[in-house]
# Entry
Amino acid sequence: MKIETIAVHSGRAVDAATGAVTPPIHLSTTFEREANGEYPKGYNYTRSSNPNRESLEKCLADLEGGMSAATFSSGSAASMSIFQSLSPGDHIVACDDIYHGTRHLIQLFSTWGITFSFVDMTNLKFFQSELRKETKIVWIETPSNPLLKIIDLKRISEATHQIGATVVCDNTWATPVLQSPFSFGVDLVMHATTKYIGGHSDILGGAVISKKDDVIFQKIREMQKSGGAVPSPFECWLTLRGVQTLPLRIRAQSESAMQVAEFLNSHPKISKVYYPGLKTHPGHSIASEQMKLFGGMISFEVNGGKDEAMKLAANVNLFTRATSLGGPESLIEHRASVEGPDSKTPQSLLRMSIGLEHPDDLIDDLKQALEK
Ligand SMILES: *Cc1c(COP(=O)(O)O)cnc(C)c1O
# Structure
């Protein structure tokens, strides 16, 4: 089946008890045992499993074309479960332009004897020079955050498999609608469902999806159940509701982002636009092969540095000045100040999440703000 159909139907069924078309929310933390001690419906305690969480996990696994999914209380908790599957002495190679929260999390694991390297994965030679016999995880984010670097999923996966390590792709920005990492050789897909999958800026969640039910995924599942960083039944329900419109939303957002990127690219006050849909983007040809559309995120640099960037962000009316992404409302942020003092992000850079407004209105808003 096509992804639109999976998004609407997977993990859902008419409720057998009531005929309800929309699934009920099962808030109960505990489930009854039969007189013989068995749990005939398969549930016993919500940290271990819950009907709403199971529905969401089924849907996310189907969307990515994977075998199983484990959902978490945030994207970061999902990433953490992957790092917790490692042992002291293991080594992680991650892309240099990685979500700053994931970078920080990896650095925290050095206390547990995990070592790491951050490398520009757009260069295969640089990447291969960081691989060691201790390397267990290779962490890709493409498009990356916030510079929208495009990493070749197939070539990085092939090189990683030569040393027997596991390839993880944070697919939050592309979503399974635009990019299918498993089809390029990736082993695990991670999502912040907080973003496009939930899609309405009202839930925090994460997921790890596995191509196979292998040892590493079993460890992740064990961390989920025993560690307990699980999403609540209501958040699972809201996320599964959001998923139904994901294919339509991300396509509309990508089409609008393309128009906004072209507008910015031709504006004299903008020095640089980072959007893989632009032919001038260095990753454009790889993005064209591994993505269906180029997504709803754009970064750009304003002439005149931080002050001019801050001024532009102050003068927009329709965009909301806020972090995060993937909701119906367009957002703009000065990324370096969100990332903090060790950020390497240029001070003149603004990052935008293009929402579901009409692109003409977004362009008009940027136009008036740039004239001020
Ligand atoms: C937001 C985000 C995360 C972290 O997700 P949280 O739900 O905020 O913990 C990880 N990766 C990317 C690319 C993100 O945008």
Summary: The two ends are 50 Å apart (CA to CA). The chain has a mean pLDDT of 97. The longest strand covers residues 135-141. Residues 74-76, 99, 101-102, 141, 145, 170, 172-173, 192, 194-195, 204, 206 surround pyridoxal-5'-phosphate (CB under 6 Å).
